[in-house]
Design brief:
Elements lengths: L9 H8 L6 E3 L2 E7 L3 H18 L4 E5 L2 E6 L9 H16 L4
Helix pairs in contact: 2-3
């Protein structure tokens, strides 16, 4: 059976955030703002992240204007932040690094 999302405690979230610089908790969601060199790099990051999110069946809330991408992650089915949100955040960090995110 496929792994299910598990709601994380505040202390688990705080500990996990230490390994994700730039990520915070805002409004009960994992939050990160990325800035890229231009719109094409920002959109390329979003396209790559969309493929990863779809493969996980775990989709972000996000917003894009020109070179900026704002991401919020939460697991609606459990009403909070889960292990899936941190897994997707780590994968997004790897994609952003490859996209030369400053």
């Amino acid at each position: 059976m496929a792994e299910q999302p598990r709601k994380m405690t505040e202390s688990e979230i705080a500990a996990a955030l230490k390994s994700l610089p730039g990520w915070t908790v805002a409004g009960g969601k994992l939050h990160r703002e990325y800035q890229f060199a231009n719109f094409v790099e920002a959109f390329g990051f979003m396209a790559s992240a969309a493929l990863v999110a779809e493969s996980m069946n775990h989709h972000p809330e996000w917003f894009n204007v020109y070179h900026k991408v704002v991401v919020d992650l939460a697991t609606h089915s459990i009403g909070g932040i889960s292990n899936f949100d941190f897994e997707l955040a780590k994968k997004m960090e790897a994609l952003a690094t490859r996209a030369k995110h400053p």
